[in-house]
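Let's sit down with a protein and look at its sequence and fold side by side. Once you have written the record down, we can walk along the chain together.
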Amino acid sequence: MSDHDISPEITARFAAIVGERYALTAPDDIAPFVHERRGFFVGRTPLVLKPGSVEEVSRIMRLATETRTPIVPQSGNTGLVGGQIPDQSGREVVLSLVRLDRIREVDVLSNTITAEAGVILQNLHDAADGADRLFPLSLASKGSCRIGGNLSSNAGGTDVLAYGNARELCLGVEVVMPNGEIFDDLRKLKKDNTGYDLKNLFVGAEGTLGIITAAVLKLVPKPKGREVAWVGLESPAAALRLFGRALDKAGSGLTAFELMRAITLDFVLRHIPGSVAPLAGSYPWYVLMEISSGRSAEDARTLIEDILGEAFEAGIVGDAAIAESLAQAKAFWSLREDMSDAQKPEGGSIKHDISVPVASIPAFIEQAMAAVERTVPGARPVCFGHMGDGNLHFNVSQPVGASREAYMARYHDMNAAVHAVVRALSGSISAEHGIGQLKRDELLETAPPVAIDLMRRVKKAFDPLGIMNPGKVI
């Protein structure tokens, strides 16, 4: 046994903190916690701990510091960059937050909700809805992802345009530090200039500085009217013109603006049962646009009709359908949310989660598609995402009939080609999924040396023993 193996004695001490029922050691019990859902990352661990309180998390971290045991925090295990998966050494312990699933408070007057890290995002939505409020972080994985992971990866989603990403929706956090200290900053203040904003070091840190166990999150009044339209147009340039007009006319009432290449819709119609094309004709590009109004349903309807009417007259839009019911609006959104799953039957997919300035999106798409063709001729760019905030999921499916293994062996080459375009346009190689294991080396290679040095100093100050989610981010 090496110096770094976890002895039976230490394993028993960890298990005693949570109780035998919540200390998993059987391979079948552990398996769901060490496999990333795409199968891209698979790790090993001798132990999964499922604490039921922040005090238990604190005791676990005190013991981890004493024994120098690496800890990998995990919430819903829906991450796509391997940030929540242990390595192959078999010496890292997974700390699952699924039992910390209480909503501690809903404060309607302050427009806040205080939730523990293991609360499923959909349940948080439901709690806000029960108070006639909206929690505006919305992801396709909302039925399984958990708020701790959303905060640790600074998740974005479809409503960033109007409401901001996870960091902007978080007012305060409760964090267990690597030495077991509890940093209680669960405040509801919208204004606070008392020193450094420490909470924002933990949001987006992917569990490398401490473990977020609870957070105070912003709520907003529920819109009184919401309209959704599916729009067909000829190009990203046309979509950008439509976006400019919609933003000018609706302002903050433009709550979503999603751009999709035709192939993405084709995949959904082909592989997702019950999917129906919203328009009679086909177009090279589509936009899913949502307008919300705090005044009335009539106001939202008038706004979206005016925007589309003017766009038709200007020759920007080829065709559009405005949802005539809540069911149809949900069906439009389902087409968008199913785009990731619809790629799987098409074979290997090389993913890119990028952002560029909104005005640069047409240039990025043109240049990135050319880079894809140069790198792997016949590969199929599957481009969709949050055009309104500059974040696109520029995924690339394998050529028809190609070998999946041979194609996926070009992952690094494809990443390098697409990310070169991103950097040339002053963009980011990780817009909302985080760095994790997948992008760690590229971050180290491409980020300014001063930035890497500062991040390493922060990491050393917070986690001097290097036991918090080692090997992730930096």
About this structure: The longest strand covers residues 225-233.
